[in-house]
Design a protein that fits this description.
The chain has two domains: about 5-165, Rossmann fold (3-Layer(aba) Sandwich), CATH 3.40.50; about 170-285, N-(1-d-carboxylethyl)-l-norvaline Dehydrogenase, domain 2, CATH 1.10.1040. Helices cover about 50% and strands about 15% of the residues. The chain has helices spanning about 15-25, 40-45, 55-60, 70-75, 100-115, 125-130, 145-155, 170-195, 200-210, 215-225, 235-250, 255-270, 280-285, and strands spanning about 5-10, 30, 50, 60-65, 90-95, 115-120, 125, 135-140, 155-165. Strands 1, 2, 3, 4, 5, 6, 7, 8 and 9 form a nine-stranded mixed beta sheet that branches. The longest helix has 29 residues, at about 170-195. The chain is globular. Bound molecules: NADP nicotinamide-adenine-dinucleotide phosphate.
Amino acid sequence: MSTVKIGWAGLGNMGIPMAGNLIKAGYPVQVFNRTREKEKPLLDAGAESAGGLSALAANNDIIFVMVSDDDAAKKTFSAGDGLLADDVSGKLFINVSTVASETSKYLYEQCRQKGAKFLETPVSGSVKPAQDATLIILVGGETDAFEQAKPVLDKLGKLTLHLGPVGVGSAAKLAINYLLGLNLQGLAETVLFAKAGGVKTEDMLTIINEGAIGNGITKLKSPAILKGEFPAAFALKHLAKDLRLARAQGLDAPLSEPLYSSFKQAQDDGLGDQDVMAIYKHLDQ
Ligand SMILES: NC(=O)c1ccc[n+]([C@@H]2O[C@H](COP(=O)([O-])OP(=O)(O)OC[C@H]3O[C@@H](n4cnc5c(N)ncnc54)[C@H](OP(=O)(O)O)[C@@H]3O)[C@@H](O)[C@H]2O)c1
């Protein structure tokens, strides 16, 4: 077993399989989740519960955070009652949650002031790549922190890219999720247009996926369209959040505003907790 002690805060759709892979890789792992029942699968797999955020920081060398959004990440890192509440000098904190570059820089500064190191490592890939440890890990931060983290990050993904200082990893993540949104919206619009012209959905998905226009995401999401069932792997509310962050971060491309509006309307219509592909359901009305 490794002597590097890992803490993991945030056990949602992504946090559970990712922390699970570190247990499988032989790291001693402590976990904490706001809703404590969600710790159970990790405890069953061999993790310990830290019982609270300050204990999670105190007991471990590298502490990962994988929570919903900017506010949740700031709250988790809080110097009041979060990870940074007590002495954390020498610790390495890694935020995996998708947040704005500005939020990432803020968290970096909070850690730096407490004598701790910080990396942002948002990931490209959803639950299946998280389970299979084939994520693409987009790192922003200082080189020494990156080198310290790399052996651990390599247990979570197939590719770990050090892209620049803190903020650049988040910029890359918001950019790739813009392309994800365009793909999902385009797939839904195309299938619905074909359906209106009398083309069976199954046939249209075959045309897409057997040709050059088909890609990993169209293939992955086709079964959900066919079944009309959209249980969340990547919740639609999180993509709406990422498109909002991208717009706030300067994305002003012609399709960016209507794309964001479409996902925001779907969220407002009650589809936020369903999968991103539920954009199809929203448009099929
Ligand atoms: N799912 C994907 O495919 C995917 C892929 C790449 C990146 N991401 C990003 O990764 C992050 C996590 O995604 P996910 O799919 O794992 O999300 P999720 O299933 O919705 O889980 C969210 C996690 O955040 C915690 N949380 C939410 N608000 C909190 C708060 N105010 N204080 C403390 N904890 C809070 C939740 O705790 P509770 O259990 O107590 O609610 C839960 O552990 C998001 O930023 C998302 O954009 C997701």
